[in-house]
Amino acid sequence: MAKLLVDGGRPLRGTVRISGRKNSAVAVMPAALLPQGTSRLENLPRITDVEVFLSILRQMGAEAAWREDGSIEVNAERLYRLPVSFELTRRLRASYYLLGALLARQGRAEVALPGGCDLGPRPIDQHLKGFRALGAEVSLQRGTVKVQARQLRGARIYFDVVSVGATINVLLAATAAEGTTVLENAAREPHVVDLANYLNACGAHIRGAGTDVIKVQGGHPLRAAAHAIIPDEIEAATFMTAAAAAGGDVTLENVIPTHLEPVSAKLKEAGALVLENGDSVRVISTERPLPLQLKTMPYPGFPTDAMPPMTALLSIASGTSLVSEGVWENRFAHVNELRKMGARIRVEGRTAVIEGVDALQAAPVEARDLRAAAALMVAGCIAEGQTEIFGVEHLDRGYEGTEEKLRALGVRVQRLREE
Ligand code: EPU
Q1: How confident is the model over 208-226, as a mean pLDDT?
Q2: Of 3.65.10.10, 3.40.50.150, 3.30.420.10, 3.30.470.30, which CATH number belongs to 22-228?
Q3: What's the pTM?
């Protein structure tokens, strides 16, 4: 267990390279179980979620290891037929992608219900509906999901809610289904497109990823391919928000600016200058942020994962902001901690009413989930004095090299082991 000490209250200046996207990495890694041969996955972030997934792949019998150049090679030609240990799967939500991947690969899978951040109920009914529509038998016993099918068959599947996880899981399974699968009301997130690009590079026939209708011609043999994971737009959004909140001039390299548009638009509305240049984005901020009205939604709406850091920014805005959470039932775990730093925030149902204060004060605070940790990191950059952030293991699940990156922006930061 570790804590971070962040000395805030000064503008951020410098350049940071954004890492590969966590939520894409944890979808492409299980997909690498499907093709014959060795896939090389580049631009994977060195974060706990990726390390845990690597351990899961190895425990299943796959060869999977980091190379010196920072890529990972995965060869899954030989796999054991054992259920994956709950010790590992419980540590990350995305372990449920093994259901879709193994169903495609070997016609059966058994995975304990996943962990991940506590954001309220996280049902997987849409995943199971998709598997059933493809002809799989699905059962749920003592917290473990079992799926099996002698032959998956293409189907038309309408998702009742827009779900990133269900879209990815059913897409994985559909690559092995005979005939055509059509996913309707599919998630449009860039990491769905990234996964489809990797699978297509392996020989799959997936069209329409990035729109709400995805068509898969299943049953094509897949051969391993090299693939570079797209940049993490939530990590980028976190640093952009920190720069806009604390003031300064920050350049982020290795980003895809179009993926950042929902966040850039809101930061501009809050008064920051956001300049795009090829694969970099620069955020300049000299004034106190303006208040905003914001609602999180599936892509291309404002991403729920970027909302907690934005709440930290709005806590020092020059007026009252309204932030509505449109994806998760309970995503305001960071609010109590921000209050300890002087923020005036009231949560009414799924809306936070944020009355901007002149400044935040450093305080000991505790992160209870990944993006709450990111919010506290941003708050630490804003606040005068030294903010002590406990629960840093949550941050490590999704952010690579946080201290080095903050230091590159002139922030004094130390990691200490908790006593
Ligand atoms: N939902 C259902 N039934 C389902 C699946 C989802 O009702 O079968 C509901 C959920 O309860 C939620 C909404 O649909 O209200 C959206 O859930 P979704 O399935 O899209 O979320 P997820 O796949 O579990 C991923 C990310 C989350 C991110 C959401 C939304 C991964 C591993 N996780 O979760 O990321 O918040 O999409 O964009 O990709 C994070 O990185 O901090 C994080 C929590």
Answers
A1: 97
A2: 3.65.10.10
A3: 0.96
